[in-house]
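User: Modeling request: complex.
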Amino acid sequence: MTKGKPADLQKSDVLQGTLDLMVLKTLEALGPLHGYGVARRLEQLSEDVLQLNEGTVYTSLLRLQHQGWISAHWGTSENNRKAKFYQITRSGRKQLARETASWERISGVIGRVLRLAGDEP
Amino acid sequence: MIAGLRIFAAKLRGSVDKSRLDGDLDQEMREHLALLTERFVSRGMTPEEAAYAARRQFGNRLVLRETVNEMRTFAALERLVKDLRYGVRLLARNPRFAAVAFLTLGLGIGVNTAIFSLVEGLLLKPLPYRHADRLVVPATIFQRFNSDRGSVAYADVLDWRAQSDLFTAVSAYSPGDVDVTGEGEPERVHVLAVDADYFRVFERSLLIGRSFTAEETLPGASRVAVLSYALWLRRYGGDRHVLGRRLELNGVSCEVIGITRQSSTWPSEAELLVPLRIAPLKDPDLLRRDNHIFQALARLKRGVSLQGAQARLTVMGERIAHQETGRAGTNWKLHPLAAYIIGPTLRQTLLVLFGAALFVLLIACVNVANLLLVRGAAREKEVAIRNALGAGWNRLAAQFMAESLLLSAGGGLAGILGGYWSLKGLIRFAPTDVPWLDRVHMDLGVMAFAATLCLATLVLAGVVPAIQAARLEPVEFLREANRTSSGGRRSGRLRGLLVISELALAIVLLTGAGLLIRSFSRMQRIDPGFSTRNLLTLQITLPHARYGTPPQVAAGFDQVTSAIRRIPGVLSASAASSLPVGGGGFYLGRVFLREGQPEPPASTDTNAAWSVIEPEYFASLGIRVLQGRRFTDRDTQQSTPVIIISRSMARKMFPDQNPLGRRIRSWRDENLYREIVGVVDDLRYDGLIQDIGNNVYVPHQQDTWGTLAIVVRTQGDPNALLPAIRRQIWSVDKRLAIADVKTMDQIVAAELARPRFSMFLLVIFGATALTLAAIGTYGVMAYNVEQRVREIGIRMALGAARADVLKMVVGGAAQLASVGVLGGVAGAAALTRLMRTLLFGVSPTDVQTFVLVSVLLTLVALAASYVPARRATRVDPTVTLRSE
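Assistant: Request completed. Predicted assembly structure:
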């Protein structure tokens, strides 16, 4: 009946699409990974610019799974424990290509606009 | 779209496999935290610090689990189920509340379901005929008789048929009864004499055999008949070799040439179809425009609107009214067949009842809303605490709605069950002349309607209390809790509003019921003009084959009535072409001129109902002869033509003169001067509640008819003599069929059956409304008193007398009641206009009824508040003040 999300997740709504894109890219670049691995990679790449609750990685993974862009299977982690591994699918790669292209286009435009604005004294 | 489907499938999987997936997630989270902790430990933290830091970096696991769960399953649905379960527990804990709510809603929904079944079956369902929406009944409008359903002239039918761009077929027919003899038992059946267009109107082929050829519809052709499906089953057991067999219809042998398909033609009560056998083109009398002796049926061409066809006919009719004599004040009306069958009065009755039923439901909803409000108020603490613990108001409202959903679903179930039984009762006790009760069922349409009502009750009864209860801010609750002495002002006002609307609704319903009661008692007091007790009537036809000449017919009826008179216990027996108060048979509507009066348009003729009677008729009915004499056996074909006229007729034609000895003629028909030999009291021939018209009577010996109604006045119960009467009739001619055996009391009762039925239903609705309104008022007043116990205690401590407290509480109720009554009276004044056609001798704004109902409802409201008021006076100030 009611629709609503706990408050702390709502704040990352802006980032949701971006987070999904980053997770997808991570999986494409590094191959099958578990959630912890994805979180580590994101941490490493974002160089502490991006503060995020690592738990949100799992919601992102679930969303991507629902879209059919990644698949999951159980495997064994580095320290020999059971862990779930995520892997990009073929449609996921296509989606990534599309998203990357559109991201570059948009960020290009935004960058130009911002540069323009900065030129004025 | 496809993504949506994929998510739906994933959610479906998630719901089914919930526990495994939950375990998976937990496993993942544990693993993640373990790895994170190890990492922090390796950076030099103590295990405790590391575990804490890991949990912080990971975020709220509970929230994550809920979010994932939300994404993975139909969480809203799960919440609903949870809420419903909670609701069931709450209801089970308070069975009295549950019972009252279920019963109230069940009553409202049940009443509506039953009435809607009638509305659907009689007004909404399409007729069983092919493209029934294009079947129309052309009829004559007689302004003089205030009728738009009059018979039509054959010339009219020919005119319509010529409009081939409007109609695909136009049929003239003439209904009647015929005695079927020959094979099997003699019986009287309804017959239609139809022209060749009749079957074309219905566009259905026969089941077997063929319909009539054009030649067979001419006079002198060989006799043929088509049987209805029902008659074929009854008399021949559905034998397919029936074609070519012969039936005797009123003694005339006819060949069976066809069988109709089941319910493929109308009027459905006609079981036998025979050719009309007329040659209008050779018979100028048949072509006369004022010879309205046929019924018509037509089929509109595809794409032709009723309005369009009607407009054309109206223009044609106006032209004819100008050109032809005897057509002034007439025109044509096209009735859709369905509307023609049901008729405006029945339709109006059903709509009024339907409206009344909806009112009952509204009142029921208000009552339940009230109950919920009171209960919500009692749960303010629970709500406030849950709100403080973080449940959003929409979440709380959802839970309240779930409870209301339970109530309305339960009420709906109770309603459907109750409606099923009420419908059975309704059909059982419905007036027998209501057409198509066999088409009334609780079908899918009715179920859908009941479900809609449930939703409506959910919205009407549930939404306000839910919002009201859930909107409560914890802060506000605390503030209100500190002010118990004055009660929740906002919700108090809302409850007052509910009481007002409930009383107003009840007033509207009761006013409607009151008007019908008064109108019905007026009807019951109508004097039919004769004693209806111990009077038996039946119909007999002397077949032309055996009673060929007028003297034979007259002698035949004389023998029958004489034989009946010989039965011990029979006081009088006689025969007439038609019976008063709509009792059967038929009269001719004819127009009369005095001797020497110029023919119209130079003067106006007087219309009157022409009946033929045996001499003893007035004695059998017990009607006074005001002037002159009755007919005697000496009024024969050879003697002077005579006539007896009614008092109204005498007053109309001879306002200042003695009519006896004067001569009048029915100038367009018989055109023979008849001498007035008597004046009798008026009788209502058209029906009990119809206006009195002019009547004239002619001795049967001078104008013999083959079919007459027999009236028998008996000493005791006339039904007890029926076997003897049959024996005596058959002793004269054992091949006579005896039809339409009814007592005059039955005829009168049948006349009153419809008004009685609608009155009965509306009274039930009104009583229900009154009860619910009383309960509702009581509930609110009792609650108010409970809320104000402290205030009352303080007042009493400060010296208020018990009478003051009583006055305060009852006065509060009186205030509500007066507003409710005012609103109700206004509503009733606006709505009772809609039932004008159902009322007899009572104005829709009958002051007496309005005042009576208002007083009654005010008293009920005051009585309902008196009980809690008495309780208030028993408040002990010391006890209430100490409890603070």
